[in-house]
Amino acid sequence: QLQLVESGGDLVQPGGSLRLSCAASGFTLDYYAIGWFRQAPGKERDWVSCINSGDGSAYYADSVKGRFTISRDNAKNTVYLQMNSLKPEDTAVYYCAADNTLYSCLEGSLEVWGQGTLVTVSS
């Protein structure tokens, strides 16, 4: 069974940092494009970042570019999202997802989704 489990969400003050983890079971993450998405209360789900399989090329939404970094640890079968300089508008449930193609990731139409982890940025 293909499964993704996110962790690392927490309450953090504005300007702070968090690192989210996305651990895979039942498949090897390195062969998939992995994306991070977020959904704030009362809003639609937004794309945050994608990392491609193989070369590990990374892509970011303008709203997080320069503040967030996506990476993968193939030995741990885990993808991370390092979030720095957090703002209240980053508050959302963050989801990771996996698919065979980068295109699917960038379009937000991925096959496997995690259950989400809550990030709250507030003083």
Description:
- The protein has 123 residues and is mainly β.
- The chain contains one helix and eleven strands; from the N terminus they run βββββββββαββ.
- The chain has one helix spanning 102-107, and strands at 3-7, 11-12, 18-25, 33-39, 45-51, 58-60, 68-73, 78-83, 92-99, 112-113, 117-121.
- Strands 2, 4, 5, 6, 9, 10 and 11 form a seven-stranded mixed beta sheet that branches. Strands 1-3-8-7 form a four-stranded antiparallel beta sheet, with no helix packed on it.
- The longest helix is centred in the C-terminal third of the chain and has 6 residues, at 102-107.
- The termini are far apart.
Summarize the structure.
The protein is mainly β and 123 residues long.
CA-based gyration radius: 13 Å
What is the count of helical runs?
1
Largest sheet: 7 strands, mixed
Estimated share of beta-strand residues: over 45%
Shape: globular
- Report the structural category: mainly beta
Question: What is the average of the pLDDT values?
Answer: 95
Assembly state (oligomeric): single chain
Strand elements, count: 11
Poorly predicted runs? none
Keywords:
123 residues; mainly beta; seven-stranded mixed beta sheet; four-stranded antiparallel beta sheet; 1 helix; 5% helix; globular
